[in-house]
Design a protein that fits this description.
heterodimer; A: 5-stranded mixed β-barrel; two-stranded antiparallel sheet; 3 helices; 7 strands; 20% strand; elongated; B: alpha+beta; 3-stranded antiparallel β-sheet; 3 strands; 28% strand
């Protein structure tokens, strides 16, 4: 609750009564309590003034590492986990004579206008290439603006997961 | 973490039925997005979308449509 500071003249006027002074003291108390709180704690006073709070702890996130949970914390960029939002991949987009767009959003898969993982492997011995992606990916490679549709069947570039 | 607002138009994303293509609207993103939902998605909402689509919450899943055959180059 907001309490205005009572006028000093109330307590020092020549005709001020004992009750006037008591009321003035009470008014000053309420004014200070409203400003700083009543606990005497610095933290509580800062909160009451509206300057408390702020960052009190830090937690690592996907792609963000922290040096500690509290105190002087250093944030640093780290690699996001594969196939998570914010992660990148080397991709191919299957276009099949359609246009595709730099910065466009595409789903994952092997169909037309979809993005899939790609590796420039010259040979694979004793196994097959593995890995798949989910969600929505933003194509970060060149696009086409042909009104007749792109003439390539696929393109290769970087994609970043956005959803 | 994104919040699913709605999803629609489920289509099997491959012949083996390992993924479902959806159009998804997230609360935090203004436009609808094409989305491939899989059961092993590291993003929890992706798994929710897959399971919900599988349960029929977004309608019947349309059959997989193979891409057109590439046109041979000269």
């Amino acid at each position: 609750m907001t309490t205005a500071l009572p006028a000093a003249t109330t307590a020092v006027a020549s005709g001020a009564t004992q009750g006037d002074v008591k009321n003035w003291i009470t008014g000053v108390h309420d004014y200070l309590a409203g400003l700083f709180g009543t606990t005497g704690s610095t933290a509580d006073a800062l909160t009451a003034l509206g300057v408390g709070g702020g960052v009190s702890s830090a937690v690592a996130g996907n792609g963000v590492a922290v040096s500690g949970a509290t105190g002087a914390v250093t944030f640093s960029v780290s690699a996001p986990s594969a196939n998570s939002v914010g992660s990148y991949c080397f991709a191919s987009i299957q276009v099949y004579q359609a246009n595709w767009t730099f910065g466009g959003n595409y789903s994952a898969g092997i169909g037309s206008q979809q993005i899939q993982l790609w590796a420039n492997a010259d040979s694979v011995t004793g196994g097959t290439l593995t890995g798949s992606i989910s969600g929505t990916w933003k194509w970060m490679g060149l696009g086409t603006n042909s009104s007749a549709g792109g003439q390539a069947s696929s393109a290769f570039g970087i994609a970043v997961r956005v959803a | 973490m994104l919040t699913i607002q709605y999803a629609k138009d489920p289509i099997w994303n491959d012949e083996a039925h390992t993924a479902i293509h959806l159009t998804v609207k997230f609360v935090e993103i203004p436009e609808e997005l094409p989305f491939t939902a899989t059961p092993n998605d590291p993003m929890p909402y992706g798994v929710v979308l897959y399971n919900s689509a599988l349960a029929g919450d977004y309608g019947t899943i349309a059959p997989y449509v193979p891409p057109p055959a590439p046109i041979p180059t000269a």
